Amino acid sequence: MSDLTSVLRSLHLKGKTSPLVKDMPAVKLAAAKELVAAGVMSDAIVLGADDGYAVQLLARDHSRRLLISKLGEPRTFAGIEAAAKALHQIGIHSYRVDNTRKADPANNVRIRLRKRADQQSRIAGVHKDAAYLRFLTDRTRSAVEAADANPADSLTGQHARDRLQALKQQARKHIAKT
Question: Where does the source fall among the domains of life (predicted)?
Fold first, then answer.
């Protein structure tokens, strides 16, 4: 326990609790990564609720800490995969899933997923850009294939210069007549 206390003091987290889970100490992602690297935290529980998933980190002394966001709210995940990815990033590779809260609305864990219009519009823009890139790639590929299939239809650089000179001379003659 002294290990945990000293690490928490060095991270300035002693005494922080989540307002949504009574008497449960909280920890931010960066601090959790340091705790895992120090060997204090080793396991996690992914808590399911009706509106998302939260993560409890388990210390070697059997204490629990709720993973919170930068704003101090429980860090919420839309699915188990997203929670697992975050756990993997901080160095925790084994976790349990507790979905009992999904059926029990009276439980004291409340997870609120935020609607992020900026994120949704950014993702829509990315999909639009990807579709346009696919369109350009397909059109370029078909044009190159058509040129390769019939080289007689393609122009060399010299042919293009000759054609441009002929058009210029024709335009000069037309201007000179007027």
Answer: Bacteria
Distance CA 95, CA 130 (A): 35
Give yes or no: residues 20 and 107 share one domain: yes
What's the pLDDT tens digit per position in 41-80? 889 999 887 778 889 999 888 888 999 888 888 888 888 8
Domain that holds residue 167: 118-177
- Where do we find the tokens 């899933």? 97
Q: What is the CATH number of the domain that holds 98?
A: 3.30.720.210
**Structural domain total, the chain:** 2
Q: Are 65 and 59 in contact (CB under 8 A)?
A: yes
For tokens 């709210």, what's the residue?
Answer: 73
C-alpha distances in Å from residue 103, one per residue of 20, 50, 80: 18, 8, 17
> Do 18 and 61 belong to one domain?
yes
**Among residues 52, 46, 47, which one has the least CA distance to residue 115?**
52
Q: Do 103 and 162 fall within a single domain? A: no
Q: What are phi and psi of 28, to 5 degrees?
A: -85, 165
Instruction: Say if CB 53 and CB 86 are below 8 A apart.
Output: no
Supply the pTM of this predicted model.
0.48
Confidence class of residue 138 from pLDDT cuts 50, 70 and 90?
very high
| Same domain for 73 and 52 | yes
